[in-house]
């Protein structure tokens, strides 16, 4: 099979086309299926892995790629985790621990979801990583509830765009930050109620102004560092900060007095190392709460650009440029 390998840690050109033996069809009792990959999503962790900053979990493929869409061609389809009655020939999108940049990929059946009605391969491939991440962090861990407002740091990223689309579809008010006026305008077009240019505006001041001084209820933070105290300053009482990346640094100095006095929560998570049992729970929640919106055409991923498999290095260059608004996808 064709694959994209990381020749050595470094720049995008370290992603090189190669071939490897086809993976064996998973046997009964494994709870895994073999997917003929038709499209694969590009995500920030892929870039970190390529640079040597995101170790591959034990037992996972060293081939990058955390989400795929394609056709089931074999595997353990009688496993108890096959909650949706999937069978050979069905098209699914799947969250995987690695191996997505390839013709074939093994996935836990508990992390496979059927294509939403009318979705292309590219649209289906744009779902798993960001939808699992946003749902598990904003709605499960952050407990965004009816009538509450969400602030997303980095609204134009793949995660940010998904957070806008998903939270708006669930009836919430959404504020975002972005680095240019053009990206702010794109976020508004996607449905954000307020977009703040963090280079020219103070997001604390803008959030306070937009909420009559009350603040937002949940913040999805991909920056951390010096942002954390500022986020505390613009949280409503009982508010929650959910950290999913540390692009601004891993250390922060905060006012613990505010946390105590206003009953604030600072939490966070990473998705890739979590066990299948946890991801199975997210899969069910997505199927129950989000797939009906996708099937009804009320929600669709925003795809910025697609590349062919052998153009993976170009896709990574675009990801690192931060010029994109939405998802980057490989067509396999």
What characterizes the major β-sheet?
7 strands, mixed
- Name the structural class: alpha/beta
What's the average pLDDT? 96
> How many DSSP-defined strands?
15
| Low-pLDDT residue spans | none
Helix percentage range: 25-40%
Question: What characteristics describe this protein?
Answer:
332 residues, alpha/beta, 7-stranded mixed β-sheet, 6-stranded parallel β-sheet, 11 helices, 15 strands
Please outline what is shown here.
30% of the residues lie in helices and 27% in strands.
What do these coordinates show?
This protein has 332 residues and is of the alpha/beta class. Helix content is 30%, strand content 27%. The protein has 11 helices and 15 strands. Strands 3, 4, 5, 6, 7, 14 and 15 form a 7-stranded mixed beta sheet that branches. Strand 14, helix 11 and strand 15 form a beta-alpha-beta unit. The model has no long low-confidence stretch (mean pLDDT 96).
Secondary-structure blueprint:
Elements: E1 2-6, E2 15-19, E3 32-42, H1 44-51, E4 67-75, E5 91-95, E6 104-108, E7 112-114, H2 121-125, H3 128-141, E8 149-153, H4 158-169, E9 173-178, H5 181-190, E10 194-197, H6 203-210, E11 216-221, H7 227-233, E12 235-243, H8 256-262, E13 265-268, H9 276-289, H10 291-295, E14 303-308, H11 312-321, E15 327-331
Parallel strand pairs: 8-9, 8-11, 9-10, 11-12, 12-13, 14-15
Antiparallel strand pairs: 1-2, 3-4, 3-6, 3-15, 4-5, 5-7
Helix pairs in contact: 3-4, 3-9
